[in-house]
Amino acid sequence: MNVLIVEDFKELADELAEFLQKNGYLCKIVSTCADAEEEVEVNEYDAMLLDLGLPDGSGFAVLKLVRKLKLKMAVIVITARGELNDKIEGLDLGADDYLTKPFALTELAARLFAVIRRINGFAKNELDMHGFKIFLQDYKISFNDNIIALTKKEFNIFQYLVLNKNRVITRLQLTEHVWGDVLEINSDSNFIDVHVRNLRKKLEKYAALPWFETVRNVGYRIND
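Request: output the structure for the sequence above.
Response:
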């Protein structure tokens, strides 16, 4: 999952990124409204951690742009401001949650996971997809109580496709959300197909996968 951290206090931004990366997220840090707005217009993110007090303006401007573009992105406002009016304004503008500094990193992780799950239409930490149980927080998949050994990349691919069920996900989108920066990756490389093929082989040992669709020359889709 890709997270955009919009925070001008470098030490905090680095701490957030390090913590989230250890928990399986891919992170990009920016420190201004201008850079944040450019990122959301060009790249896809699953979530944004948004500070309000930025050097070139209010983070509310970034939040307004995210909602104007109708992006499927969870937004958690993180700020030193504790005033009720700021919280109300942020929620009214479309923020999904609000944290006042200082906060525990474990609380942030729990809230982040919850809003991403909610944005994608899931209420529980455990998903069931055609008999395969996906334990989102534990990075595990099982079938009939048998744990299936997947690599972290294979799990992330399957998780991302399931969270976007009934939607065609392109190879580029999978690359961005599972590997992060794609600038150094050869667009003609078949490494995505190799990982998906390996994933399918492991799942097919337990059940047929007519619902795991390859969309020719585009990408993949998991059908509900």
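Helices lie at 10-22, 33-42, 59-68, 84-92, 105-119, 152-163, 171-178, 191-204.
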